[in-house]
Structure formats: C-alpha cells, structure tokens
From TrEMBL, chain A:
PROSITE patterns: ULP_PROTEASE. One of its GO terms (cellular component) is nucleus. One of its GO terms (molecular function) is deSUMOylase activity. Residues 46-240 form the Ubiquitin-like protease family profile domain. SUPFAM superfamilies: Cysteine proteinases (SSF54001). This is Cysteine proteinase.
TrEMBL record, chain B:
Residues 1-20 are annotated as: Disordered. InterPro entries: Rad60/SUMO-like_dom (IPR022617), Ubiquitin-like_dom (IPR000626), Ubiquitin-like_domsf (IPR029071). The lineage of its organism: Eukaryota, Fungi, Dikarya, Basidiomycota, Agaricomycotina. Coiled coil: none annotated. SUPFAM superfamilies: Ubiquitin-like. It comes from Dendrothele bispora (strain CBS 962.96). PROSITE patterns: UBIQUITIN_2. It comes from the Eukaryota. CDD domains: Ubl_Smt3_like (cd16116). This is Small ubiquitin-related modifier. Residues 20-97 form the Ubiquitin-like domain. PANTHER family: SMALL UBIQUITIN-RELATED MODIFIER. Residues 1-17 have a biased composition (Basic and acidic residues).
C-alpha cells in the first residue's frame, strides 16, 4: 500500500497539470472492479464512496459524506467535540429545506440532543478535558456550509462564514438584525445543554453577567470562488484542533 | 395490572424472546413518520430499502441515523441495542459550495 502511495505521488508530481485526470482515471479503475470502497475510520460506520471522492476535485461542492468523514477523522481523540452535519439540520432548523432557525425547543428535542451528544463523545473518544464544540451548519436553500464554535475555556461562541458578502453586509447592521444572530442564539442554548453533559452549570439566556463573548459574524478567511465553503468549514475545524481557535492565525488557506 | 407490575414483568418478556419483533419509527427531516415492525436480528439495510421504496427515493440519496450515528449495512436492532418504539432519523444528502 505504501509503495502504491509513493508511486501515485511520483506520477502526479511529474505531471502536475494532469493530476486531476490521473487521479480520476485511478478512481474510475477502482470503480470498475468494485461498486464501492470504504475508508474506515475508528471502526465506525463512516465510508466514502467513489461518487463522494469525485467531489474532492477543484470546483466540486462537498457533500455531507465528505464533510462527516473529515469531521470525525480529525476530531477523534482531540479536544474538539465536532458534531456531524445533520445535528443543526435535525434540531435547530424548522425544516431541512428552509433555513429558518427554531425559536423554541421542546422537551423531546432536548432529550434527543443529549443522546446525540453523549453518543458522539463516546464515538470520538475525546480527551478527558476537551474544551471546544465544533458545529458545522448547512444552508440547504443556498447550498452553503458554515460553522459555529463553543469554547468552554475562553468562554466564546462564534459563527464563522467564509462568504465575504455576508460578513461585510452584516458589519454595519445593529446586532439584533444581523443574519447569524438566530443561529447564534440556538447555539447558546446548545452550549447550555452540552455544559450539563460536561457536568457544569451554564446559563446564557437572559444572563448579561455570564462573561461569555458572542460573535455572530466572526472574522475568518473568505472563499475566493463559489465552491469552497465546505473546505473552509473543514479548515475552521483544523485550526481549532491545531491552534485552539479558528482565527488563531489568519493566514492563507492551506491546501487540504 | 398496576404500573409496578408492568415494570417488573417487562424484562422477563425481553429475556424470553430476544428475537421478538420491535416497532421502529422512521422520521424524515420534514417530520413525516413511517412505522416498521422488524425482528431484532434483521439487518436494518432491509428496512432502509423498504423505506426508500415506500417514499420513492434512491437509497443512496438518504441517510439513516440512530442517535446521530450512521446506520451501516450490517447493523441490526440488536447490534445497536435498540429498544421498542425507538426512532431512526432519515436525512437527505447535503451539498454545499455557495452560489
């Protein structure tokens, strides 16, 4: 297997402009003798299939399979509890097709969320003193990925969106009418629930003395095209895992 | 039968027939519910196929989750430790790039 990897690297390095084509041929070849192949991670049910891998090419839109694969692979055994892409769709939005945040949450949702969180902590085998929560968010109406983070040490909740226009247009608006305030409020509620799972007590709603910082439009790198928001969201996670903050170093985006 | 009696007899019923069918509720992301009765040893992939056929969707375009975790081809209610009346969430594929 290692020999195969170095051989593929050698071929691709020698023909950089044809890299996409070479890897595409390789994937087609794999596809031709097997209907699907699994990239197992943590002995869990994660798998990527040929159709998902095709999305990794330049200009491809990432789907939930690719996002969830990296969310789980990278946050495993880290200090970051990364939820999967269905978490917000399932619990925080009124309908999977319409991007409107719920304004209230019933008791059965609270119970289900606690179940998802416990299961996720168990699956990821997080470090004992994990400090962050990473929440990927999917906007089905606009086919857009963005994210939210909860930092239990620095007491900070932030929403990260790589779409520059959304950031700039909301800078001059009063806080109440900023676009990501509803999702921020929902994440504040999630933070209270997760604090309970952590055995801590946290009240953020109607509590001006909480000493937490809230940023509905935190500054991060912007995508330079109309395709890379999924990659940016994964990059937010990578920063969080490696540098303890999404905006720790605002450098150029690294190639994944 | 009082409530206490029911509690005390329930575990026995389970032990008697570990393979007794259980009711599973499949809930879509728009809130629609479909009920299935399946044996604890039956692969959930069967249920997934039946559900997809019922709602007229390609099984590859929808995701089945139990407690937020993807259900794999080989999972059964027994392997997932599912209980009677548990819920499986069905989510649709998500794609994002922006505009």
């Amino acid at each position: 297997m290692r020999y195969m990897e170095s051989e593929i690297s050698r071929i691709c390095d020698g023909n950089v402009p044809q890299t996409t084509e070479v890897l595409g041929c390789l994937l087609s070849a794999v596809q031709s003798f097997r209907t699907g192949f699994d990239l197992k991670c943590l002995k869990s049910n994660l798998e990527l299939r040929y159709d998902d891998l095709r999305r990794l090419g330049a200009g491809g839109f990432l789907n939930d399979e690719v996002m969830n694969y990296f969310l789980q692979k990278w946050s495993a055994k880290s200090a970051v509890l990364a939820m999967n892409t269905f978490f917000t769709t399932r619990f925080l939005f009124k309908d999977s097709r319409i991007h409107i945040v719920k304004s209230h949450f019933d008791a059965s949702a609270t119970k289900s969320i606690a179940g998802w969180i416990r299961k996720r902590i168990e699956t990821l085998k997080l470090r004992a003193r994990w400090r962050h929560v990473f929440i990927p968010i999917h906007n089905a109406e606009k086919s857009h990925w963005y994210s939210a983070t909860i930092d239990f040490v620095n007491r900070r909740i932030a929403v990260w969106d790589s779409w520059e226009a959304t950031h700039s247009q909301n800078q001059c608006k009063p806080l109440r009418s900023q676009q990501h305030v509803p999702i921020l409020l929902a994440v504040m509620w999630v933070a209270e629930l997760i604090a309970q799972v952590r055995g801590e007590s946290l009240v953020l709603a109607n509590n001006p003395t909480s000493e937490w910082d809230f940023e509905p439009h935190a500054k991060t790198n912007f995508q330079v095209n109309g395709a890379d928001c999924g990659v940016h969201v994964l990059w937010h996670l990578k920063r969080l895992i490696e540098a303890d903050a999404v905006d720790a170093v605002l450098g150029d985006i690294e190639t994944l | 039968m009082s409530e206490e009696d029911q509690h005390s007899t329930q575990p026995e019923i389970k032990d008697e027939d570990a393979n007794a069918p259980i009711n599973v509720k499949v809930v879509s992301s728009t809130g629609d519910e479909v009920f299935f009765k399946i044996k604890r040893s039956t692969k959930l992939s069967k249920l997934q196929g039946a559900y997809a056929a019922k709602v007229g969707k390609d099984v590859g375009s929808i995701r089945f989750l139990y407690d937020g975790s993807r259900i794999s081809e080989t999972d059964t209610p027994a392997s997932l430790d599912m209980e009677d009346n548990d819920t499986i969430d069905v989510m649709v594929e998500q794609v994002g790039g922006c505009h």
